[in-house]
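To close the section, here is one more complete example, presented without commentary so you can practise reading it yourself. The ligand is zinc ion.
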Amino acid sequence: MTVPVRTLDDGAWISVNNARAVSNSEVWPVSGAGVCDCEVAHLLPESFYDVSVGRDAVAVGAIVQCIDCGGHGTIDALPVGRVVDGEFREFDPGAVRRPRATDG
Ligand SMILES: [Zn+2]
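Output:
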């Protein structure tokens, strides 16, 4: 089953199944983001430029800022939740995420 996903409002929102699911006002703990030197960076997504569904995981591409050190960068494929029985389930806000490898 294919779940439609897209960005809305110039990248302020991620839509899953035609419903607003993820906003750019959330802060995510991310390990291995490559954005800065923090072991676990708390990243605020300033803008989403991509969203995709791989297997059942929804991953976003985002311009992010680390609220711990101020580091700034982009992540091409950060999993933010999964689709279960056609419904989006966002990861626990405190759960540390890891970017999906985009090459190899
Ligand atoms: Zn940082």
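Once you have examined the tokens, check your reading against these statements. Residues 36, 38, 41, 66, 68-69, 71 surround zinc ion (CB under 6 Å). The chain has no helices and eight strands.
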